[in-house]
Amino acid sequence: MLNNTTSKILKMHARRNPDLHVSSAAYSQLSPSVTSATFLSPTVASRRGLLSPSPPPSPSLPSLVPRHGKKPSTSGHSRLVKRFLIGFSLVTILVWVIVRQIYAHQAQNAQFDDDGEEWEMVGGSLLPEEPSAVVVQDLKGKSKWTVSIPPTFDFPLAPSQYQEICHQSMELSKQLRQEANAANSFAKRMLNYYTKDQYYMDIQDAEEQALLPPSKAGGRPKGFVEDASHGATTGLKVCDKSLTYVMETDDAGFGNTLLRMWMSYGLAQKENRTFFVDDTRWPYGKYSTYFQPPPAAGCLPPSKAHMVPCPHNARHIVVSGATVRQTFGHAFTEEYEDPRKMRVQRQHNIFGLLRTGYEALFKLQGEDAKYVEERVESLYTPVREHKGISIGIHVRHGDKHPMEFQFSKDYLPLDRYIDAARDFYIERVENAGGKKDKRTLPEGLSPRHTSAKMILASDDPEVYDAREMGHTLRAQDRIVLATKKTLEAAQGKKNPWIDEITGWEGGFYRDVFLSLGQSVGNADDVTKLDSDKVPEAAMGLRELVGRAYIMDLAVVGQADTVVCGMSAVGCRILAIMMGWDKAIDQGSWRNIDGDFDWKGIIW
């Protein structure tokens, strides 16, 4: 029980150690309520026997029933041995009970020193040196779990550490619920999305009860993106609740980062949390290279020790590529999908979260924003003035293959895109007198004279030169990804026997992107590159690729209709840019990759 700021506490932490060996005798001396998460986990078969230590088994006693007609032995020696064994067993049990009480008492007396640097744990151990989920006892003596992040760790933590914290948290929470419901012998492994975990204690509360050392205010983490307030923080207080999105990804895709960031922003607004962005480990460089500052927070970020990936009901949560499944997993889908609707209509609420993030965050920076505005004006205004139709086409090749089984090892035929575009033209222009579209054409013009444009965006430069795409226009030509043939024609090939130039034939590939501007001899060398130390020249090339991607989307997203394949993240992003009414209700967004509907989360 805790009586003052140096009160006695009971803690445990969850930590995996494959080299740890614990004998049953040593374990029997510990309090069963104070164990590490490795002992608590009922999923580890080799440790189930450690969950409830029991006293040594009593020795077998001689049978009282004569066997095979023999008379029972009545020797005094046997009776002496029997009495000795019974006495020895009783003494052993008594000693075991006494030792257990002593260790439990010592655990209750564990305390930390005044400067908060060393926290004594059960059995003389210290607070875990790694960020971990730990179990403590609150003022009422009830076991609760919380998260300990030592002050020596910077923000953000490594992806593996965020994953481990969530894994430990789930196991500890489940174990505490099982112990509390032992009579029922049943506890749900997963809670509903907004079900408050009654066994979780927020880090701030744990510090106030002196169960964790007080964290020091470290100011704004160095990787946090400056918001629209431009650093004006005088007189501001720490945010009550927050959600921080960490822009990190292991798939090198720009689209996934956008989608998850927009979803995080929409969720933060829904839950009345302040939104922050961190770009410390983003493969594409700095947020400000592409976008204008996010909306002003109006308050200060919390201490880095208070920002945790799990549970979702924590005051200050972190969402990253490592924990996106915890934040936007099955519990999130069950919460936000509309069970009363069918097919794509079930996704309306999730689409709304993404649209909120898009409207607040997708504001291009500087010259790129000006270029996109002028490009949209030049491409689409003449078409709209003549009551024509613009059709955006997005083709993704590279390391992204279709969801449709027939083409899952290849790519969708380009004819399919053109056929879908032709269908749009027939529906919206040639059949304009029908129920779907009652537009009137200028006097003297027939539907076949109506203006129409097809605007193409692709990660594969060879698609622009394909025969099927002969009547399309590039979405943007400010930054163009070139083929090896084009580069050699422009620069000349110095050595006919050595490939000195690499192009984007086939589209975007993760390894090609990560190796830009760096010395790579073969494919295996890509895995040896240090992602935290990217040369300036290499980062400059990455930024060009990223800027080309978002300008392509920004231009195509302004078209009247869009044709694309659902397997590409960019295709789903285009639907968000168009809006629910236009893309879904009016059917102006069309997927040609199998019979799939738009979906915000695809694992």
Explain briefly what this protein structure is:
The protein is α/β, with parallel strands linked by helices.
Give a description of the structure.
It is a single chain. The chain is of the alpha/beta class and 603 residues long. It has 3 domains: 1-57 and 82-215, no CATH class; 242-361, no CATH class; 367-564, no CATH class. It is built from 18 helices and 11 strands. The protein has helices at 24-27, 37-40, 76-108, 159-180, 203-208, 254-270, 324-327, 330-336, 348-361, 366-385, 414-430, 461-464, 484-491, 510-514, 523-526, 536-556, 569-578, 580-585; strands at 12-13, 132-137, 143-148, 242-246, 274-278, 316-319, 389-395, 452-458, 472-474, 561-564, 589-591. The strands form 3 sheets. It has a 5-stranded parallel beta sheet, with helices on both faces. The protein is elongated. 36% of the residues are buried. The model is unreliable at 1-11, 14-70, 103-125 and 435-439 (pLDDT under 50).
Which residues sit in consecutive blocks of at least 5 with pLDDT less than 50?
1-11, 14-70, 103-125, 435-439
Helix content: 25-40%
Output the radius of gyration: 32 Å
Mean pLDDT: 79
Query: What would you call the structural class?
Result: alpha/beta
Distance between the termini: 45 Å
Task: Please give the order of strands in the largest beta sheet.
Answer: 9-8-7-10-11
The backbone outline, from C-alpha atoms, is elongated
Task: Tell me the β content.
Answer: 5-15%
Helices and strands, in order, run as: EHHHEEHHEHEEHHHHEHEHEHHHHEHHE
Sheet with most strands: 5 strands, parallel
What's the structural domain tally?
Answer: 3
Total helix count?
18
What's the total count of β strands? 11
Keywords: Membrane, Transmembrane, Transmembrane helix
Region (Disordered): 47-76
Transmembrane segments: 80-99
GO molecular function, one term: alpha-(1->6)-fucosyltransferase activity
